[in-house]
Amino acid sequence: MRRSVPAGAAAAVLALMGGAGTLAKGDQAGAAAAFGREGYVTLPYTGLGFPNSGCKISLDDPDFDGKAAKQLVDHLAGLKTDNSGRVLDFIAADADSPTAGPKDPKVGMIGGSYGGQVQFAAASLDPRIDALIPIITWNDLSYSLAPNNTSVSRGVTYTTPGVHKKQWTSLFFGVGILAGIQGTAIDPSRNVGCPNFVTQACLSKAQPETFGYPDQATLDFARHASITSYLAAVKAPTLIVQGQKDSLFNLQEAAATYRGLADLGQRSGRLPDELLRDVVARRVLDRPAAPE
């Protein structure tokens, strides 16, 4: 844990590194230090399938990545030990929760891209998570990787697929396969069969490579790992941050998530990443904001 523990119990922040981010590279160390100065404890972690972790990459699917994050909430609650057998005893209980008690820690999540979507996956399974800040992530991964702005049925989810973003999927698979090689000593089985990805991921990569667009099985796989499929299960207040110039996860995805949560009565807000950088510069780094 990267922490600056204040006197008494402290609220916690779970932070997943996006994409190839790992603990070994020190990702999230700056954010953890900033949160520590404000009295929070930060638990950064590496996503499934990336170096320093076991298992294969499953695209932030709730059935895998969501359950893994839920176990970390159990750890913060003192229900699970770490690898050394240690039980945490300095995380504040959530006194505002209907289920308040030592098994319900006060905890929020933050992270970008891959570290953004996992927050939705975790919150859909664990109501103990109190707040989310997903930064530049997807609403529907099928739209992100094969966009089509016609025949939209809800949010950005369409009925007619668009053209496959080959460069983006190839980049992500390259990063993922390299991560598997780097993490062989931790989990050799990750590189058996589909290298460091769940089997359906390889099938879903090969299919649009052949035809140029995703078939129904590929769409179903991508959408199962997307908040568009389980919006109603996400109850935590959410601040959505999105990149105005991002060519993978555009503003329409953030708008779709915001509107979907708002329509269900969930508390949510939107913030462009340029404004977030100004806020961080002023409040966290003590630097002047960027000029207009």
Note down, in words, how this protein is organized.
The structure is a single chain. With 292 residues, the protein is of the alpha/beta class. It has a domain at 2-140 and 227-283: Rossmann fold (3-Layer(aba) Sandwich), CATH 3.40.50. The chain has helices at 29-37, 62-76, 114-125, 141-145, 166-182, 199-211, 216-224, 251-263, 273-283, and strands at 2-3, 12-16, 41-45, 107-112, 129-135, 152-154, 157-158, 238-242, 268-272. It has a seven-stranded mixed sheet, with helices on both faces. Helix 2 packs across helix 3 (114-125) and helix 6 (199-211) crosses helix 7 (216-224). The longest helix has 17 residues, at 166-182. The radius of gyration is 19 Å and the shape is globular. Residues 1-6 and 276-292 have low confidence and may be disordered.
Give me a quick take on this structure:
This protein is an alpha/beta fold and 292 residues long.
Task: Give the topology, please.
Layout lengths: L1 E2 L8 E5 L12 H9 L3 E5 L16 H15 L30 E6 L1 H12 L3 E7 L5 H5 L6 E3 L2 E2 L7 H17 L16 H13 L4 H9 L13 E5 L8 H13 L4 E5 H11 L9
Helix pairs in contact: 2-3, 6-7
Question: Taking all residues together, what is the mean pLDDT?
Answer: 86
Tally of helical runs:
9
For the sheet with most strands, the description reads: 7 strands, mixed
Q: What is the class of one domain in the CATH system? A: Alpha Beta
Q: What's the CATH superfamily of one domain, by name?
A: Alpha/Beta hydrolase fold, catalytic domain
State the separation between the terminal residues, measured CA to CA: 37 Å
CATH domain topology of one domain: Rossmann fold
Strand sequence of the main sheet, in spatial order?
1-3-2-4-5-8-9
* Helix/strand/pairing category: alpha/beta
Low-confidence stretches: 1-6, 276-292
Give the percentage of residues in beta strands.
5-15%
Task: Note the run of SSEs as H and E.
Answer: EEHEHEHEHEEHHHEHEH
Tell me, what's the shape?
A: globular
Task: Please state the oligomeric state of the protein chains shown.
Answer: single chain
Number of DSSP strand runs? 9
C-alpha-based Rg, rounded: 19 Å
- What CATH architecture of one domain would you give? 3-Layer(aba) Sandwich
Which bin fits the share of residues in helices? 25-40%
